[in-house]
Design brief:
mainly alpha, two-stranded parallel sheet, two-stranded antiparallel sheet, 24 helices, 6 strands, 3% strand, globular
Length: 618
C-alpha cells in the first residue's frame, strides 16, 4: 500500500489519525486514476489464480486462489478506508461521485480476515464438490465415472426411460446438493454478516442494489405475472403430450410435471424433449447438429464463426490472446475442472478468455455466441476505469450474446451460413420453431426467478433452516409447476445441485437478461430493416441482423458505456426505452400464444396445477 500512503501524503493527509477532507475534487480524480491502475493489477492476479483453479482443481491451486482472493479483499478494504477521507457524497462531479460510491461498496471484503477465510473455505468446498461429482452407470453399477458434462447431460437429453432418468436425477442431487448442507449454512451466516457490514439488511438487498432500482423486485413480479398465462399454456400442453407419451401413471393430468422427464437436470429449459412434444411432428424441427458434424465442424470453427458474426456488425474481433489462452474443449489429461461455460476478463488490455467444454451441436453453437457476447462487452468497455468495467446491470451482460443467438438460430441465418438447406417456413413449421424457442426462453423465466427468490428468503431469515429443502421445492412447484421424481425430505438438500447456487452466483441477471434481450433484439431488427410489425413478410421471429452496421452501431453505443451510467441510460442508447418490459416477448410469441390457447381448449387440456406432495418436512 506504499503508493497509497505517498498519494495521501501528497494531497495533505496524515495516516493513522483523524484526517482533514480532500482539498478538491481534482485531487480526488488523481487518486482515482492511481487506484484504478493498481486495482487492475490486483484483480488480474486474483483472476489468474481463479482461472488456474477452475481449469485444474487441485489443493495447490485452491490455496493460491484463496490467498489471492484474501489479498484482493484486504486491498479493497484499505481503499474503502481511504475513501472516508473524501467528502465524496457531496461531490459536484457525478462521475467522480459514482466511482467513489462503487468503490465504497465492499461486498464480502467487508468481513474480518478470519471470516473471509471461512467464507473462501465454504465456497471452495461447495465449488469443488460440484465439480468432482461422479455417478455410477445405471446399466453397470461397477462403472462409476460418469460426470455431469457430457455424460449425464446427454443421458437426460436422449433417454426416454423414466426409471433410468429417475436414477440419474437422484444420484446427481444426492451427491451435488446434499453434502453441502453444513457449508451452505455457514455461507448464509457469512453472507448476512457481510451484507450488514455494507449497511444492507440482508444479502438479498445487497444483490438487488446492483440494479440501482428499489422497485426491481416488484417490477419483475409484475412482468412475470404478464408472461405467466403464456407459460401456463405451454405447461399444460407439454404435460398433456407427455401423458400421451409416457402414460397416465407416470404423468398426472392436473399435477406438477415430474421434472426428470423434461430433458434437463434442473428442468430449466425443455427444448431437449421437443422431438416427442412438438406441435407438428411431421414437420422437421430445426436442428443442424447432424449437418455440423457432416461438414466437419469442431470447437475452433464454431468460435471463429461466432467471432465473424460480431465482425459483420463492425464490432471487435477476438484478440490473439483469446486464441492462445482460452480452453474451448474439455482437456483430455484427466484433470478435474468446472465445465460450466464461462467468459473471463483479466483486466489487461485484450486478455479475455472463454472456458467451455464445447461439443459439436446446435445448442452448444448458441452457447458459443452467448459467451462471445460477454467477451465483446469486455472488449468494448476495457478503456474505462476499473469500477466501470462491468455491465450496465448484471442482466445486460447475459443478454448481449443471447441477442446474437436469437438471430443466429433463425432459418434465415442458418441458411446463410450453409447449415440449413431447402427449408420451407410454412405456418406449421413456424409454430414448431416458436414452440421450441418458448421451451427455452419462456420456460426459463420462472426457473430463474425461483433461484434467487429462494436465496433471498434464506438471506432474509424468512425460512427456518429446518425447512430449507421443502421451501426450495415449494417455490419450484409454485412458479414452474414441476416436482422431483421422488419424495425429498429435509435430510436432502437440493438447491446447490445447481452450479450457480453452489458457486454463489446471483441468478437474477439471467431473468433480467431473458426479458431485456427481446427488447434489444426487436430494436436491432428494426435498425437492420429486418422487422416490420405491419409486414408479414418480415416477422420478428425470423429476423437476422447479421451484417447490419446500424445494429452494430447501437450495440457499440451501449456496450462501450459499461457501468459508467445507470442502466436505463444504457438501454436508451440501444432501444430508445428506459424501462424493462415484457411487451417484446409477447410480440415475439404472439402466434404461438393464439395457437396454444385454441389447441388446449380443443383438447380439454387442464391449465394450471395442483400442489405437490413430493417434499416432506419433519
Amino acid at each position: 500500500m506504499k503508493f497509497l500512503l505517498l498519494l495521501l501524503a501528497a494531497i495533505g493527509f496524515c495516516h493513522g489519525r483523524n484526517i482533514l477532507l480532500a482539498r478538491s475534487e481534482e485531487e480526488a480524480a488523481q487518486y482515482l486514476q492511481n487506484i484504478n491502475a493498481e486495482l487492475n493489477k490486483q484483480i488480474n492476479l486474483d483472476t489468474e489464480a481463479n482461472w488456474a483453479y477452475t481449469t485444474n482443481i487441485t489443493a495447490a491451486n485452491e490455496l493460491v486462489k484463496n490467498e489471492e482472493s484474501a489479498k484482493t479483499a484486504k486491498f479493497m478494504k484499505q481503499i474503502a478506508e481511504d475513501l472516508k477521507q473524501f467528502d465524496w457524497q457531496n461531490f459536484q462531479d457525478p462521475d467522480l461521485k459514482r466511482q467513489f460510491k462503487k468503490l465504497a461498496k465492499l461486498g464480502y471484503a467487508a468481513l474480518s480476515e478470519k471470516d473471509y477465510d471461512k467464507l473462501l473455505s465454504v465456497l471452495s468446498m461447495m465449488d469443488s464438490n460440484y465439480a468432482k461429482v461422479r455417478v455410477c452407470s445405471y446399466i453397470d453399477r461397477m462403472s462409476c465415472d460418469l460426470q455431469l458434462e457430457p455424460e449425464l447431460t446427454e443421458i437426460l437429453t436422449t433417454s426416454r426411460d423414466p426409471e433410468e432418468l429417475e436414477y440419474y436425477w437422484q444420484m446427481w442431487y444426492d451427491k451435488a446438493g446434499t453434502p453441502t448442507r453444513e457449508s451452505f449454512e455457514k455461507y448464509i451466516e457469512l453472507n448476512t454478516k457481510a451484507a450488514k457490514l455494507n449497511n444492507f439488511t440482508s444479502g438479498a438487498e445487497l444483490w438487488l442494489d446492483e440494479y440501482d432500482d428499489e422497485t426491481m423486485e416488484q417490477q419483475l413480479e409484475d412482468i412475470y405475472s404478464e408472461i405467466r398465462p403464456l407459460y401456463e399454456q405451454i405447461h399444460g400442453y407439454v404435460r398433456w403430450r407427455l401423458r400421451q407419451f409416457y402414460g397416465n401413471k407416470t404423468v398426472p393430468e392436473k399435477g406438477p410435471i415430474p421434472m426428470h422427464l423434461l430433458g434437463n437436470m434442473w428442468a430449466q429449459t425443455w427444448g431437449e424433449i421437443a422431438s416427442i412434444i412438438s406441435p407438428f411432428p411431421d414437420k422437421p424441427l430445426i436442428d443442424v447438429t447432424e449437418e455440423m458434424v457432416r461438414q466437419g465442424y469442431d470447437a475452433e470453427k464454431m468460435f471463429h464463426m461466432a467471432d465473424e458474426f460480431f465482425q459483420s456488425l463492425n464490432l471487435k474481433k477476438l484478440p490473439k490472446a483469446f486464441w492462445e489462452k482460452s480452453i474451448i474443449e474439455k482437456p483430455t489429461d484427466g484433470r478435474d475442472l468446472i465445465c460450466h461455460a464461462s467468459a473471463w476478463d483479466f483486466f489487461i488490455i485484450d486478455d479475455v478468455r472463454i472456458k467451455q467444454c464445447t461439443r459439436v451441436n446446435q445448442d452448444q453453437f448458441a452457447t458459443v455466441h452467448h459467451e462471445q457476447g460477454h467477451i465483446q462487452y469486455f472488449l468494448q468497455y476495457q478503456h474505462l476505469p476499473n469500477v466501470y468495467r462491468t455491465g450496465a446491470n448484471p442482466g445486460f451482460h447475459e443478454a448481449v450474446g443471447d441477442v446474437l443467438a436469437l438471430s443466429f438460430s433463425t432459418p434465415k441465418h442458418l441458411e446463410k451460413i450453409g447449415l440449413l438447406k431447402d427449408y420451407k417456413m410454412d405456418e406449421e413449421a413456424r409454430l414448431n420453431k416458436l414452440f421450441l424457442t418458448a421451451l427455452d426462453k419462456i420456460v426459463f423465466l420462472p426457473f430463474a426467478f425461483t433461484m434467487d427468490k429462494y436465496r433471498w428468503a434464506l438471506f432474509r431469515g424468512e425460512v427456518s433452516s429446518r425447512k430449507w429443502n421443502c421451501a426450495f421445492w415449494k417455490l419450484r412447484e409454485e412458479y414452474s409447476g414441476i416436482e422431483p421424481p421422488i419424495v425429498r425430505t429435509e435430510k436432502d438438500f437440493d438447491a446447490p445441485a445447481k452450479y450457480h447456487v453452489s458457486a454463489d452466483v446471483e441468478y437474477l441477471r439471467y431473468l433480467v437478461s431473458f426479458i431485456i434481450q427481446f427488447q434489444f433484439y426487436k430494436s436491432a431488427c428494426i435498425k437492420a430493416g429486418e422487422y416490420d410489425p405491419k409486414n408479414p413478410e418480415l416477422p420478428l421471429d425470423n429476423c437476422d441482423f447479421y451484417g447490419s452496421a446500424e445494429a452494430g452501431k447501437a450495440f457499440q453505443a451501449m456496450l462501450s458505456m459499461g457501468a459508467s451510467k445507470p442502466w436505463p441510460d444504457a438501454m436508451e442508447a440501444f432501444t430508445g426505452e428506459r424501462k424493462m418490459s415484457g411487451k417484446a416477448i409477447a410480440e415475439y410469441f404472439e402466434p404461438l400464444r393464439v395457437w396454444l390457447e385454441a389447441e388446449n381448449q380443443r383438447n380439454n387440456v387442464h391449465i394450471g396445477w395442483s400442489k405437490s406432495n413430493k417434499c416432506r418436512s419433519y
